[in-house]
Amino acid sequence: xxxxxxxxSPSLRAPESRPARPPTPARPTALSGSWLATxxxxxxxxxGLGLAWLVAATALLVAQxxxxxxxxxHPQVVALTHAWVLGFxxxxxxxxxxxxxxxxxGTTLCNERHGWWHLGLHAVGxxxxxxxxxRWDLRLLGHFGFAVALGIVLxxxxxxxxxxxxxxxxxxxxxxxxxxxxxxxxxxxxLLLAANRFWSFIPIDPVALLRAHAHLGLVxxxxxxxxxxxxxxVPMFTLGEVRDWRLANIGLALSQVP
Length: 258
Known about the structure:
mainly alpha, 76% helix
């Protein structure tokens, strides 16, 4: 009886198994300010600046519709062209690269601060160039053109380093690399043309040089960039995939033939 009591006593009972507490869920890693700025604020800042130039260039054309009847080497026509191409299209394209390059390459922008420096130089240099063309002040044009060129140098180096750090070597990576190189070449050639108009040291027709400058930007930069962006975005939006990257590579290579 005592043994039964001892066995049944609460002090000698086997401890009851308590239900295991669920593990505390790990807190999600907060996005760093640098990543958020690179993926959000910096591209949006370029897009906003590009839209402002869209409004300004449209207003300039509405205010001066007779510009469409002038020959394309006319200083005011050149000013209007740079307001559209350099002010609107290039600004939006650079913002798109700052957004799409990290996403397409699976990395982050190499140097966000250089991107903001590029934005500041671009915001100051482009209106100065448009004004200089309009007034045909070649000395002032050289100063503002140098500011734009310095911003494009930061953009090109930033793009190249981002591609290199990603370790990607496909069609999209090559198109971003080549497009940045073509844009830098176009801007540097533009500076050379401005210096030539001031000092006249290249014995070639300035109109032919101007056309070559335009083709460098339109075909070299925009076509190359559209190829890479297209092969990245079309499969994303159509939920498909590129069937043969060899054809894409051949198309990109052929577009680089001078």
